[in-house]
Amino acid sequence: MMSEAITHLKVPMEREEKDVCLGPDGSVAHVARVLRMISGRWKLPILFRLFAEPSMRSSQLLRDIPNISQKMLTQHLRELENDGLVVRRDFGEQPPRVEYGLNDSGRSLMPVLMSAREFSRLHPERNTRLSG
């Protein structure tokens, strides 16, 4: 801790303020990471369904999310699991029974997504494109 403080004192103040936003551990990098985690056509519908229902089988998700294929559901569930937002529970039964749910990280992301929803509702789309 002391070495961090000493190093911190050697960094010029202007640079420090810029790094808080733009540095490798800055605000932009963290928000971009979250956006990568939730990007993909089906990830938000999956997250919102798992928020509404604490535990779901993939067959339930297939029924609830129109037009998603089994392949894309499986791919996005794996990515969400790898990113630490979704937990996969295999009950080790025959026939196989697997359920998915949000873990603590996934649940903690939901207020952020709800805030984004509210932002969208309060700021409707406008045609602001510049004509070229």
General description of the model:
Helix content is 61%, strand content 8%. The protein is mostly helical and 132 residues long. It has a domain of 80 residues: Winged helix-like DNA-binding domain superfamily/Winged helix DNA-binding domain (Arc Repressor Mutant, subunit A), CATH 1.10.10. A two-stranded antiparallel sheet has the order 1-2. The chain starts with a helix and ends in a 10-residue tail after the last helix.
Instruction: List unreliable stretches of 5+ residues.
Output: 5-13
CATH superfamily of the domain at 41-120: Winged helix-like DNA-binding domain superfamily/Winged helix DNA-binding domain
Record the strand order, biggest sheet: 1-2
Strand percentage lies at 5-15%
Looking at the structure, the CATH topology of the domain at 41-120 is: Arc Repressor Mutant, subunit A
List the helices and strands and how they pair.
Elements: H1 2-10, H2 13-22, H3 27-38, H4 43-52, H5 58-64, H6 70-82, E1 86-90, E2 98-102, H7 104-122
Antiparallel strand pairs: 1-2
InterPro entries: ArsR-like_HTH (IPR011991), HTH_HxlR (IPR002577), WH-like_DNA-bd_sf (IPR036388), WH_DNA-bd_sf (IPR036390)
Domain HTH hxlR-type: 21-128
GO molecular function: DNA binding
What descriptors fit this protein?
WH-like_DNA-bd_sf, transcription regulation, Arc Repressor Mutant, subunit A, 132 residues
What is the gist of this entry?
The chain is mainly α and 132 residues long.
